[in-house]
Design a protein that fits this description.
Blueprint (H helix, E strand, L loop, with lengths): L9 H14 L4 H10 L4 H13 L5 H15 L4 H10 L4 H14 L2 H15 L5 H14 L4 H12 L12
Helix pairs in contact: 1-3, 2-3, 4-6, 5-6, 7-8, 7-9, 8-9
């Protein structure tokens, strides 16, 4: 989408931001990008973002928390997936780490990985156990689970103790 040639005033930018936030939560960076694309100047964007923060409509900490909890409620993802997803949304690394530390203190990443593996296994047919294990391991990696958790689940639950190689050949 091309940036608009028409410049938005503060009220127009604020109206757009409210409309965006009424549909779903956004990070500060997402709102900044969307207002910029719609033709708002940097000073106008800064003013609108400041007003939204003061009024409590825009908060990267709250956004991060809601985003992670919402995703976990629907699908099992690992810490690494959330880290990169929030980073792409412009959330500061420190906020991401704090959020993930808090949430993954309450929720076991291993339990989430086990849930994701069970879901994947239902979709796989009766294949060679090593093939099933390899597919599940790749799937869990794509969901951002750490290698140690992946290998525990694959080795304990899928291969009956037969070791499966790490993706890097170890």
């Amino acid at each position: 989408m091309k940036p608009s040639t028409k410049r938005l005033d503060t009220q127009g930018a604020k109206d757009i931001a409210y409309r965006l936030l009424s549909a779903r939560s956004h990070s500060i960076c997402e709102i900044r990008r969307k207002l910029k694309r719609r033709g708002a100047e940097d000073a106008t964007i800064a003013d609108v973002i400041s007003q939204l923060q003061v009024s409590g409509y825009l908060d990267d900490r709250a956004f991060s928390e809601l985003y992670v909890q919402g995703r976990i409620a629907h699908k099992a993802y690992g810490r690494r997936w959330f880290f990169h997803s929030l980073l792409r949304r412009g959330i500061d690394k420190e906020i991401i780490e704090e959020t993930l530390d808090r949430i993954f203190n309450e929720i076991s990443e291993r339990d989430l990985a086990s849930q994701a593996a069970a879901s994947k296994l239902q979709k796989l047919g009766d294949e060679d156990p090593r093939m099933r294990a390899a597919k599940v391991a790749r799937f869990l990696r794509s969901r951002g689970f750490n290698e140690g958790v992946i290998m525990e689940i694959v080795n304990d639950q899928l291969t009956g103790g037969v070791e499966v190689e790490h993706e890097d050949g170890e």
